[in-house]
Protein backbone atom coordinates (compact mmCIF):
# COMPACT_ATOMS: atom_id res chain seq x y z
CA UNK A 1 0.00 0.00 0.00
CA UNK A 2 1.12 3.52 -0.74
CA UNK A 3 2.25 5.66 2.15
CA UNK A 4 -0.56 8.19 2.56
CA UNK A 5 -1.16 11.53 4.23
CA UNK A 6 -4.84 12.38 4.65
CA UNK A 7 -6.15 15.96 4.86
CA UNK A 8 -9.76 16.66 5.83
CA UNK A 9 -11.92 18.28 8.47
CA UNK A 10 -15.76 17.99 8.48
CA UNK A 11 -18.31 15.15 8.51
CA UNK A 12 -17.95 14.63 4.76
CA UNK A 13 -14.27 13.74 5.15
CA UNK A 14 -14.55 11.26 8.03
CA UNK A 15 -16.04 8.30 6.06
CA UNK A 16 -13.35 8.78 3.42
CA UNK A 17 -10.62 8.49 6.03
CA UNK A 18 -12.48 5.53 7.54
CA UNK A 19 -12.39 3.77 4.16
CA UNK A 20 -8.62 4.16 3.96
CA UNK A 21 -8.27 2.79 7.48
CA UNK A 22 -10.51 -0.20 6.71
CA UNK A 23 -8.49 -1.00 3.58
CA UNK A 24 -5.30 -0.87 5.67
CA UNK A 25 -3.59 1.94 3.82
CA UNK A 26 -0.43 3.10 5.54
CA UNK A 27 -1.53 6.48 6.90
CA UNK A 28 1.56 8.42 7.90
CA UNK A 29 -0.37 11.41 9.25
CA UNK A 30 -3.80 13.02 9.32
CA UNK A 31 -3.99 16.76 8.75
CA UNK A 32 -7.07 18.64 9.93
CA UNK A 33 -8.04 22.19 10.84
CA UNK A 34 -7.22 23.46 14.36
CA UNK A 35 -9.85 22.86 17.04
CA UNK A 36 -12.56 25.51 16.85
CA UNK A 37 -15.18 26.93 19.28
CA UNK A 38 -18.50 25.09 19.09
CA UNK A 39 -21.82 24.91 20.91
CA UNK A 40 -23.37 27.37 23.32
CA UNK A 41 -20.37 27.33 25.61
CA UNK A 42 -18.00 27.97 22.67
CA UNK A 43 -15.54 25.41 24.04
CA UNK A 44 -12.88 24.19 21.63
CA UNK A 45 -14.00 21.08 19.76
CA UNK A 46 -12.03 18.63 17.62
CA UNK A 47 -13.10 18.09 14.02
CA UNK A 48 -14.85 14.82 13.06
CA UNK A 49 -11.67 13.79 11.23
CA UNK A 50 -9.48 14.42 14.27
CA UNK A 51 -11.83 12.44 16.50
CA UNK A 52 -11.72 9.49 14.10
CA UNK A 53 -7.94 9.67 13.70
CA UNK A 54 -7.36 9.73 17.45
CA UNK A 55 -9.64 6.72 17.97
CA UNK A 56 -7.34 4.79 15.62
CA UNK A 57 -4.13 6.09 17.14
CA UNK A 58 -3.06 8.02 14.04
CA UNK A 59 -0.69 10.99 14.09
CA UNK A 60 -2.69 14.23 13.89
CA UNK A 61 -1.22 17.50 12.61
CA UNK A 62 -3.16 20.80 12.79
CA UNK A 63 -1.29 23.67 11.13
CA UNK A 64 -3.04 27.01 10.64
CA UNK A 65 -1.42 27.30 7.21
CA UNK A 66 0.60 25.20 4.80
CA UNK A 67 2.29 28.22 3.27
CA UNK A 68 5.08 28.44 5.84
CA UNK A 69 8.35 26.59 5.03
CA UNK A 70 8.43 24.88 8.42
CA UNK A 71 4.93 23.42 7.88
CA UNK A 72 5.98 22.18 4.44
CA UNK A 73 9.14 20.62 5.83
CA UNK A 74 7.17 18.80 8.52
CA UNK A 75 4.88 17.39 5.83
CA UNK A 76 7.86 16.40 3.70
CA UNK A 77 9.24 14.35 6.61
CA UNK A 78 6.21 12.03 6.39
CA UNK A 79 7.43 11.05 2.88
CA UNK A 80 3.98 10.45 1.39
CA UNK A 81 3.45 8.62 -1.88
CA UNK A 82 -0.05 10.13 -2.03
CA UNK A 83 -1.79 13.00 -0.28
CA UNK A 84 -5.57 12.53 -0.15
CA UNK A 85 -7.61 15.70 0.43
CA UNK A 86 -11.33 15.81 1.30
CA UNK A 87 -12.88 19.12 2.40
CA UNK A 88 -9.73 20.10 4.28
CA UNK A 89 -10.33 23.84 4.32
CA UNK A 90 -6.77 25.05 3.68
CA UNK A 91 -5.16 25.99 0.38
CA UNK A 92 -2.34 23.70 -0.74
CA UNK A 93 0.44 25.77 -2.36
CA UNK A 94 2.54 24.42 -5.21
CA UNK A 95 5.35 23.48 -2.80
CA UNK A 96 2.93 21.11 -1.03
CA UNK A 97 1.46 19.72 -4.26
CA UNK A 98 4.99 18.72 -5.29
CA UNK A 99 5.72 16.75 -2.10
CA UNK A 100 4.02 13.36 -2.72
CA UNK A 101 5.75 10.89 -5.02
CA UNK A 102 2.59 10.18 -7.02
CA UNK A 103 -0.02 12.92 -6.61
CA UNK A 104 -2.24 15.05 -4.41
CA UNK A 105 -5.73 13.62 -4.93
CA UNK A 106 -8.87 15.54 -4.02
CA UNK A 107 -12.30 14.03 -3.28
CA UNK A 108 -14.63 16.84 -4.39
CA UNK A 109 -18.40 16.67 -3.84
CA UNK A 110 -19.59 17.79 -7.27
CA UNK A 111 -19.56 16.75 -10.89
CA UNK A 112 -16.65 18.91 -11.97
CA UNK A 113 -16.31 21.41 -13.55
CA UNK A 114 -19.69 22.33 -12.03
CA UNK A 115 -19.67 23.76 -8.49
CA UNK A 116 -15.98 24.19 -7.84
CA UNK A 117 -15.25 25.73 -4.46
CA UNK A 118 -16.08 25.35 -0.79
CA UNK A 119 -19.84 24.68 -0.80
CA UNK A 120 -20.64 22.42 -3.78
CA UNK A 121 -23.38 20.34 -2.15
CA UNK A 122 -25.58 23.23 -1.08
CA UNK A 123 -24.92 24.91 -4.44
CA UNK A 124 -26.25 21.88 -6.33
CA UNK A 125 -29.48 21.83 -4.31
CA UNK A 126 -29.93 25.61 -4.54
CA UNK A 127 -29.47 25.47 -8.32
CA UNK A 128 -32.13 22.79 -8.69
CA UNK A 129 -29.70 20.26 -10.19
CA UNK A 130 -31.16 16.83 -10.91
CA UNK A 131 -27.88 15.11 -10.03
CA UNK A 132 -24.93 15.56 -7.73
CA UNK A 133 -21.86 13.44 -7.35
CA UNK A 134 -18.20 13.11 -6.47
CA UNK A 135 -15.15 13.80 -8.62
CA UNK A 136 -11.75 12.27 -7.82
CA UNK A 137 -9.29 14.86 -9.07
CA UNK A 138 -5.53 15.33 -9.38
CA UNK A 139 -4.91 18.65 -7.65
CA UNK A 140 -3.24 21.64 -9.25
CA UNK A 141 -2.76 25.24 -8.08
CA UNK A 142 -6.26 26.28 -9.19
CA UNK A 143 -9.42 25.93 -7.13
CA UNK A 144 -10.76 22.49 -8.09
CA UNK A 145 -9.46 22.88 -11.64
CA UNK A 146 -7.26 19.78 -11.83
CA UNK A 147 -7.65 16.84 -14.18
CA UNK A 148 -10.28 14.28 -13.14
CA UNK A 149 -9.71 10.55 -12.62
CA UNK A 150 -13.37 9.62 -12.11
CA UNK A 151 -16.88 10.99 -11.57
CA UNK A 152 -19.67 9.21 -9.67
CA UNK A 153 -23.22 10.50 -9.97
CA UNK A 154 -26.35 10.17 -7.80
CA UNK A 155 -29.79 11.82 -8.12
CA UNK A 156 -30.83 14.69 -5.85
CA UNK A 157 -34.19 13.72 -4.33
CA UNK A 158 -36.94 16.17 -3.42
CA UNK A 159 -36.42 15.51 0.29
CA UNK A 160 -32.63 15.79 0.18
CA UNK A 161 -30.98 18.49 2.27
CA UNK A 162 -27.30 19.36 2.37
CA UNK A 163 -27.13 17.22 5.52
CA UNK A 164 -28.58 14.07 3.93
CA UNK A 165 -26.80 14.53 0.62
CA UNK A 166 -23.46 15.06 2.36
CA UNK A 167 -23.75 11.66 4.08
CA UNK A 168 -24.58 9.90 0.82
CA UNK A 169 -21.82 11.63 -1.13
CA UNK A 170 -19.26 10.80 1.53
CA UNK A 171 -20.02 7.10 1.05
CA UNK A 172 -19.86 7.46 -2.74
CA UNK A 173 -16.62 9.43 -2.41
CA UNK A 174 -14.99 6.77 -0.27
CA UNK A 175 -15.84 4.01 -2.73
CA UNK A 176 -14.68 6.09 -5.71
CA UNK A 177 -11.37 6.93 -4.04
CA UNK A 178 -10.72 3.30 -3.17
CA UNK A 179 -11.32 2.43 -6.81
CA UNK A 180 -8.93 5.11 -8.13
CA UNK A 181 -6.03 4.75 -5.66
CA UNK A 182 -4.91 1.21 -6.59
CA UNK A 183 -4.90 2.20 -10.27
CA UNK A 184 -2.95 5.36 -9.48
CA UNK A 185 -0.38 3.36 -7.52
CA UNK A 186 -0.01 0.87 -10.39
CA UNK A 187 0.10 3.64 -13.00
CA UNK A 188 -2.90 2.26 -14.88
CA UNK A 189 -5.18 5.31 -14.73
CA UNK A 190 -4.97 8.71 -16.37
CA UNK A 191 -6.69 11.94 -15.34
CA UNK A 192 -8.63 13.82 -18.03
CA UNK A 193 -8.55 17.64 -18.14
CA UNK A 194 -11.81 19.29 -17.16
CA UNK A 195 -13.88 20.73 -20.01
CA UNK A 196 -13.80 24.50 -20.31
CA UNK A 197 -17.58 24.79 -20.65
CA UNK A 198 -20.11 24.27 -17.84
CA UNK A 199 -17.92 25.45 -14.98
CA UNK A 200 -19.35 27.26 -11.96
CA UNK A 201 -18.11 28.31 -8.53
CA UNK A 202 -19.64 27.65 -5.11
CA UNK A 203 -18.05 30.04 -2.58
CA UNK A 204 -17.97 29.52 1.16
CA UNK A 205 -21.35 30.24 2.74
CA UNK A 206 -22.06 33.09 5.12
CA UNK A 207 -24.88 33.12 7.66
CA UNK A 208 -26.57 35.94 5.77
CA UNK A 209 -26.98 33.64 2.77
CA UNK A 210 -29.85 31.99 4.65
CA UNK A 211 -32.02 35.13 4.79
CA UNK A 212 -35.19 34.56 2.75
CA UNK A 213 -36.33 36.96 0.04
CA UNK A 214 -40.09 36.40 -0.20
CA UNK A 215 -40.26 37.99 -3.66
CA UNK A 216 -38.58 34.84 -5.02
CA UNK A 217 -40.69 31.86 -6.06
CA UNK A 218 -41.86 29.16 -3.66
CA UNK A 219 -39.68 26.62 -5.51
CA UNK A 220 -36.55 28.79 -5.15
CA UNK A 221 -37.15 29.28 -1.41
CA UNK A 222 -37.90 25.56 -0.96
CA UNK A 223 -34.52 24.81 -2.51
CA UNK A 224 -32.89 27.40 -0.25
CA UNK A 225 -34.40 25.76 2.84
CA UNK A 226 -33.02 22.38 1.80
CA UNK A 227 -29.66 23.73 0.62
CA UNK A 228 -28.95 25.50 3.91
CA UNK A 229 -30.05 22.69 6.19
CA UNK A 230 -28.35 22.26 8.66
CA UNK A 231 -26.24 25.42 8.21
CA UNK A 232 -26.68 28.36 8.00
CA UNK A 233 -30.41 27.62 7.91
CA UNK A 234 -33.01 29.51 5.88
CA UNK A 235 -34.57 32.18 8.08
CA UNK A 236 -36.95 35.09 8.24
CA UNK A 237 -38.22 37.22 11.14
CA UNK A 238 -41.52 38.00 12.85
CA UNK A 239 -41.98 40.51 15.64
CA UNK A 240 -38.19 40.98 15.81
CA UNK A 241 -37.59 37.26 16.38
CA UNK A 242 -35.79 35.00 13.92
CA UNK A 243 -37.73 32.07 12.50
CA UNK A 244 -35.80 29.24 10.87
CA UNK A 245 -37.67 27.17 8.29
CA UNK A 246 -36.75 23.50 8.55
CA UNK A 247 -39.17 21.66 6.26
CA UNK A 248 -41.32 23.20 3.53
CA UNK A 249 -43.32 22.28 0.42
CA UNK A 250 -43.84 24.56 -2.61
CA UNK A 251 -47.45 24.82 -3.74
CA UNK A 252 -48.53 25.98 -7.20
CA UNK A 253 -51.23 28.15 -5.68
CA UNK A 254 -51.51 31.74 -6.85
CA UNK A 255 -51.28 33.87 -3.70
CA UNK A 256 -53.86 36.59 -3.18
CA UNK A 257 -51.60 38.54 -0.80
CA UNK A 258 -48.28 40.36 -1.06
CA UNK A 259 -45.06 38.35 -0.82
CA UNK A 260 -44.19 37.39 2.75
CA UNK A 261 -47.80 37.35 3.98
CA UNK A 262 -48.67 34.42 6.25
CA UNK A 263 -51.88 32.69 5.19
CA UNK A 264 -53.88 29.82 6.63
CA UNK A 265 -54.10 26.60 4.65
CA UNK A 266 -56.68 23.85 4.72
CA UNK A 267 -56.33 20.35 3.37
CA UNK A 268 -52.61 20.87 2.72
CA UNK A 269 -49.42 19.51 4.28
CA UNK A 270 -49.44 22.25 6.93
CA UNK A 271 -51.73 24.84 8.47
CA UNK A 272 -49.30 27.62 7.53
CA UNK A 273 -48.54 29.00 4.09
CA UNK A 274 -46.50 32.02 3.07
CA UNK A 275 -47.15 33.99 -0.11
CA UNK A 276 -44.13 34.28 -2.38
CA UNK A 277 -43.37 35.97 -5.67
CA UNK A 278 -44.69 32.86 -7.40
CA UNK A 279 -46.73 30.28 -5.51
CA UNK A 280 -47.22 29.57 -1.82
CA UNK A 281 -44.69 27.94 0.49
CA UNK A 282 -46.29 25.46 2.90
CA UNK A 283 -44.47 25.31 6.25
CA UNK A 284 -44.28 21.81 7.75
CA UNK A 285 -41.64 22.46 10.41
CA UNK A 286 -40.05 25.63 11.79
CA UNK A 287 -38.16 26.96 14.79
CA UNK A 288 -38.60 30.35 16.40
CA UNK A 289 -35.68 31.92 18.22
CA UNK A 290 -35.22 30.42 21.70
CA UNK A 291 -37.59 27.48 21.11
CA UNK A 292 -37.34 23.91 19.89
CA UNK A 293 -38.37 22.93 16.33
CA UNK A 294 -42.10 22.37 15.93
CA UNK A 295 -44.73 21.68 13.30
CA UNK A 296 -46.75 24.49 11.78
CA UNK A 297 -49.81 23.44 13.78
CA UNK A 298 -47.86 23.43 17.05
CA UNK A 299 -46.42 26.85 16.32
CA UNK A 300 -49.84 28.40 15.64
CA UNK A 301 -51.14 27.39 19.06
CA UNK A 302 -48.83 29.90 20.73
CA UNK A 303 -48.43 32.49 17.96
CA UNK A 304 -51.43 34.78 18.00
CA UNK A 305 -51.52 37.19 15.11
CA UNK A 306 -49.12 35.15 12.99
CA UNK A 307 -51.73 34.44 10.30
CA UNK A 308 -52.12 37.64 8.29
CA UNK A 309 -48.79 39.12 9.31
CA UNK A 310 -46.11 40.03 6.78
CA UNK A 311 -42.68 38.54 7.42
CA UNK A 312 -39.51 40.57 7.03
UniProtKB/TrEMBL annotation:
(6S)-5,6,7,8-tetrahydrofolate binds at residues 110-113. Gene3D superfamilies: Formyl transferase, C-terminal domain, Formyl transferase, N-terminal domain. It is an enzyme of class 2 (transferase). Residues 4-180 form the Formyl transferase N-terminal domain. Keywords: Protein biosynthesis, Transferase. GO terms for cellular component: cytosol. It comes from the Bacteria. Its EC number is 2.1.2.9. This is Methionyl-tRNA formyltransferase. It comes from Dehalogenimonas etheniformans. The lineage of its organism: Bacteria, Bacillati, Chloroflexota, Dehalococcoidia, Dehalococcoidales.
